[in-house]
Amino acid sequence: MFPDSYSPGSSSKYTRRFPNEEDLDSDRLHERKLGMKLLVFPHSHFCEKARWALDAKGIPFQPVPILPGFHIIHVRRYAPKTSVPVLLNDDEVIQGAGEIIDYLDMRFPESPLTPTDAEARRTCLAIESSMDERLGEDLRQILYSGLLAYPDFIRFCFTFPMSTFRKSVFFLSYPFLRRVIHGQYVFSIEAVEETKDRFRHTMDELAEHLKGRKYFVGDHFSRADLSIASMLSLLVRPPEHTLPWREFPDPQTRVFAESYERHPVTLWVREIYRTHRNKPQSGVSTRR
Ligand SMILES: N[C@@H](CCC(=O)N[C@@H](CS)C(=O)NCC(=O)O)C(=O)O
Predict the structure, then answer these.
(1) Which phi and psi angles does 63 have, rounded to 5°?
(2) Alpha-carbon distance 22 to 3, whole Å?
(3) Model confidence at 281, in pLDDT bands (50, 70, 90)?
(4) Which among 7, 107, 153, 235 is most buried, taking Cβ atoms within 10 Å?
(5) How far is the CA of 104 from the centre of ligand 1 (A)?
(6) 84 alpha carbon to ligand 1 midpoint, in Å?
(7) Number of domains in the chain
């Protein structure tokens, strides 16, 4: 089903999807006429990274929020893994936020998000990959550990733009989903405590790196900045993000978030969102 892949850089690839029987379905043909689609969980920081890259390039697209749990069936219709974001562009399917940036830079090379200088590019990709894990995955574990006990909040994050029917489906499936998410991302209280220490260390390390600089690599905004800011979006909750944030309902999560309120990296994320989010390099506004 995925016979063709392409790797322009160390971490990038895209998958060309070949037509199959499902493509004859009229709804899906209709879908495909509307341009690029991005399958997302609305609050997901990896999805924010892909949305931001599309917006930064001024590429119109339609975000398609999908229900967790059911996403497995939906996403696997197109892609080999179950995760979002997934970008659909005619018969091309690109899964993974970094891969989507690779693809966009290859297809729309104007205003690249990846530095063209080889050394800067290597540094940029290394930072991105390491921070996806150290910030993105660690923060997800920490936040879910406190917030899964609040179904209304989690439902809001996953279903914010969806119909009442879908919200109800989410609610009914939540006891099961909660167990799955806990098993997949939280593991145990001890693991979360360890992760919190590591996260503090990562944030302090980033603050050190940022001293006297505006951007992580060179003098220009790049995918390293976009990735780090996106990975921290759930903690910093900048107003430029597409989700209308709600206060964390869990007291411990509030204490955790407040402990980073004045951290230099938090201030940097706010500034990068203010100056670079919803400001396409090409000047075309695609705010959604
Ligand atoms: N490496 C992937 C990670 C994406 C990811 O972890 N997505 C999560 C949401 S934040 C997801 O889809 N989880 C459900 C699943 O994997 O089935 C990327 O960069 O896009």
Answers:
(1) -75, 135
(2) 18
(3) low
(4) 235
(5) 19
(6) 5
(7) 2
Distance 116 CA to ligand 1 centre (A): 27
Q: How many Cβ atoms from other residues are within 10 Å of residue 279's Cβ?
A: 15
Which pTM value belongs to this model? 0.88
User: Where a domain ends, among 74, 107, 140?
Assistant: 107
Write the residue with the smallest CA distance to atom 20 of ligand 1.
96
224, 202 contact by CB (below 8 A): no
Indicate which atom in ligand 1 lies nearest the CA of residue 137: 6
Which of 84, 141, 177, 231 is the pocket-test mutation for ligand 1 (most atoms within 8 Å of CB)? Answer: 84
Same domain, 75 and 131: no
Q: Does residue 37 sit within a domain? A: yes
Closest CA to 158 of 67, 90, 264: 67
Instruction: Please check whether residue 146 lies inside any domain of the structure.
Output: yes
Domain span at residue 206 reads 118-276
Residues 92 and 199 in one domain: no
| Same domain, residue pair 151 and 248 | yes
Q: Residue of the nearest CA to atom 15 in ligand 1?
A: 83
Establish if 5 belongs to a structural domain: no
Contact 62, 286 (CB under 8 A): no
Tokens of 73: 């069936």
CATH number at residue 263: 1.20.1050
In tens, the pLDDT along 106-150 reads 999 988 999 999 999 999 999 999 999 999 999 999 999 999 999
Q: Whose CA is nearest to atom 13 of ligand 1?
A: 83
Q: Is the CB of 44 under 6 A from ligand 1?
A: yes
Is the shortest distance between the CB of 158 and ligand 1 below 6 Å? Answer: no
Residue nearest to atom 14 of ligand 1 (CA): 83
Distance CA 232, CA 238 (A): 10
Is 128 found in the same domain as 69? no
